[in-house]
Predict the 3D structure of the following.
Amino acid sequence: MAKKGNRQHIILKSTESGHSYHTRKNKKNTTEKVEIMKYDPMLRKHVVYKEKK
């Protein structure tokens, strides 16, 4: 059986629409919430995505 590790599942939610991405992050190295520019297919442009959880 594998170890659990430091990775946790997070949801990145668009600040301008309802679209979201699912990803993982290392909670030991990145303790603050993630904010990243990603492509929003609903708006067809790049927008800021913030960690929901």
Q: What stands out?
A: The radius of gyration is 13 Å. Residues 7-51 form a domain with the Rubrerythrin, domain 2 fold (CATH 2.20.28.120). The mean pLDDT is 93. Strands lie at 7-14, 20-26, 35-40, 45-51.
